[in-house]
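SEQUENCE, C-ALPHA CELLS:
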Amino acid sequence: LGGEPLLDKKLLDVLSKMDDDIKSSTTLIIVTNGSVDLNETMAYLGNFKKINFVISLEGVGQVQEYARYGSDWQYVENNVKQFDRNKNGDLVIVTTLQVTTILGVNDLMRWCKENDIPLSVGIVKNPDYLSPLAIPPHIRNKILKQSNFENLVIKQDYLSDFEPLTSKAIVNTIADSKFEPDLHKKFLRYIELYEKDKNIPRLKNIFPDLYRVDRSHNLV
C-alpha cells in the first residue's frame, strides 16, 4: 500500500523468494493502479495461498486518464480484464468519489458490472474543495437521481486507505452535504492549476455541468 508497490523490484524479489511453506499459508493484498501486468506479477511472486489485487481507479476512459495523469486507460482496462481470477488470485476495484470524477461514477459501476468485478466506494473529505461540499446542488441532485448506488457490489475484506461505504452511506453523505460556493471557487482554481501544461482534455469539455452554477450562489 502506498505509491505503486508493483514497481518496487526489491519488494517483489523479497516476496518471490519467501519459503514455500510460508507462501502457502499467506494471503497478499496489494494495492495497485493497474499499470503493471497482473498475470506476470502473479507468476513471479509464486504460489501464495492467495493474492488479492486492489485496483485503484477514478473512472473509465478519459475520466481515469484525466484524474490520474499519465494513466493509459486502454492498457489498464486490458490488464484488469485479462487477469486470471483463479483460486489463488482475485481483484476488486476501489474508487474515491471527488468532484472531478463523480459524474462518471455510473460508467464505472456499469463497467464493473459488465466485467463481474466488485466495486467499493469511498468519498473524498480532504481537500475539502474536492469533497461533496464543493458539488453544486443541481449536480448533487443529478447524481442522487441517476446513480444506482444500491446495485454496488460492496466488498470490504481488503486493504485500502479509506473505509468502504455502504450504498446507504454513500447516498446520505452526498445528500447531506451542504453546498459551499467558496469551495467551488477553490475547486475551479485547483482545476486551472492542475490542467496547466498538461496534454489532457479539459474538464470543462468532459463535464461541462460542473461549470454551470445557479446565479443565486453568485458564481460565474
In short: The CA atoms of residues 112 and 118 lie 7 Å apart. The chain has a mean pLDDT of 89.
